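Reminder: ligand-aware prediction takes two inputs, not one.
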Amino acid sequence: MKIGPEQLARFANDGFLIVENFVSASACDALREHAQYLVANFDPQGVVSIFSTKNQTSDDYLLGSGDKIRFFFEENAFNADGSLRQQKEHSINKIGHALHDLDPVFKAFSRTAALAELVACLDIREPLLIQSMYIFKQPRIGGEVTCHQDSTFLHTEPDSVIGLWFALEEATVKNGCLWAIPGGHKQGLKSRFVRNGSATHFEIYDSSPWPLEKLVPLEAAKGTLIVLHGRLPHLSYPNLSPKSRHAYTLHVIDAACDYASNNWLQRPAGNPALGFK
Ligand code: FE2
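Here is what comes back for the chain with fe (ii) ion:
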């Protein structure tokens, strides 16, 4: 799907672009069903303890997930004794981060001609699909994602990351839709999440608070694609409603830019990030 000059101008001005009806309802449903299938076949034994203790092992589980399909629990999923408060299917926060390469259903969803054409309209010469996440935003316990820029986590020089956020069901202010600061991408990068072996920390370049009063909700009907500039400040509040808010995200970088060797997500040389083909 091509993006016209008017939409490109809006993206340049706002730092985000909402494309309604990008994905069919049936394609959304098929991806949701497949994600549920993956969760049903995921054995949480062992991972439960990793996430309840939040020790170094949990970092390794995350840091090693760049070329894997791994399951991450909601922070509020556990009782004090480490047992799940509700069934596994309603306890997973997200699946990441190489669904688009390793799973045939996600691979097909991530590599449509329409998406390749849309990304080609953006200022990306050689797109590489670097990261994918299936986000559940579970009813009542779906955790908050605090205000951030995606370039903090996936840095290239020069900056090139673009987020592609697919609403697999309706996202509203009630069930934790995205919020963004229009035009906020025009300011510099405030921090970088850098990795040194198994250790990570934030490098802070600008410690001023986000102007959260400027946030606007990006409510999205099922099938909507939201394109996010890498430096756009965005967040989502907790989902305290009884409705889930499933979304799928892809992050694309430009292979013509240098991918930082101290980004948390590293693909092994023998299994590099690939383009749309
Ligand atoms: Fe983000």
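The chain is about 20% helix and 25% strand. Residues 49-57 have pLDDT under 50 and may be disordered. We will return to this case in the review session.
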